[in-house]
Amino acid sequence: MSFFFFLALPLLLSSPPPLNSYPYDTSYRIDCGGQTNFTNRFNETWLSDRFFTGGSTSPVAETHLFQQQQEQTLRFFPISFGKKNCYIVNVPTGRYYIRTFTVYDNYDGKLHSPSFDVSVEGTLVFSWRSPWGDDVSRTGAYSDLFAFVKDGEADICFYSIATDPPVIGSLEVVQIDPLSYDSSTTGNNLILINYGRLTCGSDLLGAGFTNDTDLFGRAWQSDAEFRTGNLNSVKVIQTRRNVLGTNQRPNYFPMHLYQTAVTVVGGGALEYELSVDAKLDYLVWFHFAEIDTSVTAAGQRVFDVFINQRNVSRIDIFKHVGSFAAFNWHYIVKNLNTTYLRVKLVPVVGSPLISGLENYAMVPRDLATVPEQVTAMRALKESLKVPDRMGWNGDPCAPSNWDAWEGVTCHPNKDKSALVVSQIDLGSQGLKGYISEQIGLLTNLVSLNLSSNSLGGTIPSQLGQKSLTRLDLSNNLLSGPIPDGLSASSLQLVLLNDNQLEGQVPEELYSIGVHGGAIERGSNDYDFALPQDLISLSAKRNRYQRQKSLMLLEMETQNANGFPSSNSR
After folding, report:
1. Which ranges in the chain are annotated with CATH 3.80.10.10?
2. For residue 124, what are the contacts with CB-CB under 8 A and spacing of at least 6?
3. Distance CA 480, CA 48 (A)
4. Measuring CA to CA, which residue among 63, 65, 66, 71 is closest to residue 31?
5. Other C-beta atoms lying within 10 Å of the C-beta of residue 13
6. Which of 160, 480, 496, 548 falls between 20 and 30 A from 27, CA-CA?
7. 101 with 34: CB under 8 angstroms?
8. Where's the Malectin-like domain (predicted)?
9. What class has domain 22-176?
10. Distance between CA 272 and CA 287 in Å, rounded?
């Protein structure tokens, strides 16, 4: 996937108007790699780097190219911190504007811009592939989107391609009106990714760049480079008069957006072309205001809107709202099959006029891991002391485009509404903690391998899911009894040798390999023999890397061929 980027532009001296009428006060502006908090010339507060799961920091190579302080440092995520790393920001449930600044600028001296993906709320949103364009690689680019946060955590995650370290220069998370951009119709399960946000007849305006405050934090690019057709006929119109209907719920579009416009002279059409990705739906938002004082009645300026040669609407601004009032209208382009989106305003009466244009890819949210299982996996990460190199960050299973956490296998649940954890394979990973009781929340767990580590404590009584068929806890430092809860599972293979277990063996486990009613512990080994066929089976599972001979509890029946199969993966 390729995505639309804003190029960074110099800072302009100014201060924003008061925000007394804006009801949302949750916003985080994070200077990734920055060491101190600061307030910029627009009275925006930037925080020192925080909320990250790992990585290292660096200044850009050419700080003199970046006039904004938050653009001069970055955080990068070496592969030693795992393939997946995140910023996890605690926020109230709601809708958010999320903007990233991504820059390379040869900070590492390797002349190799990295390849990596970015996800928001478990959904792939941005893809960076080496080599980047020279301008973007050196001066950086802004990317932004709108997304709902449902669980109180805004997750922005980075996934390394090959061994390249992902990078980020700054991160902004700003709460916005939940009804903005017609979400009451489109729903909360779409992420709107910016593929073009244009102000017509004006230079760049918006948060962080000018004093024309946008309450959502949006930045608006000049439309000039996106115009096509007869450029000589384009005329810019500007006004200083107030425009009604601006800075209002639910979209809070800024007044300055409507105080400039472009039209044409000589009866021609206005044309724009935006780059897009095929096979996605797009939400196209049009902004109009009749700021030409020569238009005094309905019917004096009428034009048709064409999108990719299809006539989608007829617009008469004055008829809708009169003069010097904001009018916006939107249209959804379904399953676009081209890599461009062409907008053409064709005159019917008078000349067409437009103040702004936005284009958003409507990306469905990916499936997420069942919340209870996220809780369990995070508890296991802490209790097992999973090392950073394994990248256990963010959602354990999402995005589905990426691999799950290292050593973890996931699949959709029965109704395909969420993802669940089915296997955990962490044999020989140097784990030194214990098994959290929260593991009982993994109700779809089929196979668990924690063998050949240094795990202490007891086997949790909650480890008895009916789904569990294979359990390997051998070669650890586990103590205490075998919990009765294991009897309720569907275990077909149990490996518990080379621990410090004691006490009675639950009767229900006899049929899967226990002979006798008590565990006799000798020199760190169980006194039970392993049928030859099972020795062969275990040997095939070389990922366990057991250093001692594997000891399986002997089957009560002597027919080894009748033992339930446990295929190697």
Report:
1. 371-509
2. 1, 117, 118, 366, 399, 401, 402
3. 47
4. 71
5. 8
6. 160
7. no
8. 30-361
9. mainly beta
10. 14
Alpha carbon distance 307, 294 (integer Å): 28
H or E stretch covering 373? helix 371-383
**pLDDT tens string 246-258:** 999 999 999 999 9
- 506's enclosing H/E stretch is none
What tokens were used for 217?
């934090």
Integer Cα distance of 315 and 538 in angstroms? 73
Return the amino acid letter for 260. Answer: T
What global pTM score does this model have?
0.86
CA distance 508 to 522: 24
CA R_g for the chain: 30
The bridge status of strand 310-315 relative to strand 302-307 is: antiparallel
174: phi then psi, degrees, rounded to nearest 5: -125, 125
Using DSSP's 3-state secondary structure scheme, residue 316 falls into coil
CATH topology of domain 371-509: 3.80.10
- Strand 447-449, strand 419-425: pairing: parallel
- For 330, the enclosing helix (H) or strand (E) is strand 326-333
Q: Which fold has domain 194-361?
A: Jelly Rolls (2.60.120)
Q: Tell me what pLDDT residue 221 has.
A: 95
User: Which tens digits make up the pLDDT trace of 111-123?
Assistant: 999 999 999 999 9
Three-state SS at 321: helix
- For every residue of 258-284, DSSP letters joined together read HSEEEEESSS--EEEEEE--TTSEEEE
CA angle 147-148-153, nearest 5°?
A: 105
In Å, how far are 98, 330, 423 from 283, measured between CA atoms? Answer: 18, 7, 39
DSSP notation for 121-189: TTEEEEEE-SSPPHHHHHH-EEEEEEEEE-SSEEEEEEEESTTPPPEESEEEEEEE-TTGGGHHHH-SS
**CA distance readout (Å), 262 to 209, 234, 273, 299:** 22, 7, 15, 19
Angle subtended at Cα 131 by Cα 128 and Cα 137, rounded to the nearest 5 degrees: 75
Give the Cα separation of 215 and 221 in Å (integer): 16
> What is the pLDDT averaged over residues 385-407?
96
Q: Is the pLDDT of residue 567 over 60?
A: no
**Contact of 564 with 534, CB cutoff 8 Å:** no
Could you count the other beta carbons within 10 Å of the beta carbon of residue 10? Answer: 9
Burial (CB < 10 A; 0-12, 13-18, 19+), residue 473, is buried
Count other C-beta atoms under 10 Å from residue 37's C-beta.
Answer: 12
Give start-end residues of each CATH 2.60.120.430 domain in the chain: 22-176, 194-361
pLDDT at 510: 56
3-class SS shares of the chain: helix, strand, coil, % to 5: 15, 35, 50
Alpha carbon distance 469, 566 (integer Å): 9
491 band by pLDDT with thresholds 50, 70 and 90:
confident
363-378 pLDDT, tens per residue? 999 999 999 999 999 9
Candidates 195, 254, 199, 253; CA nearest to 222 is: 199
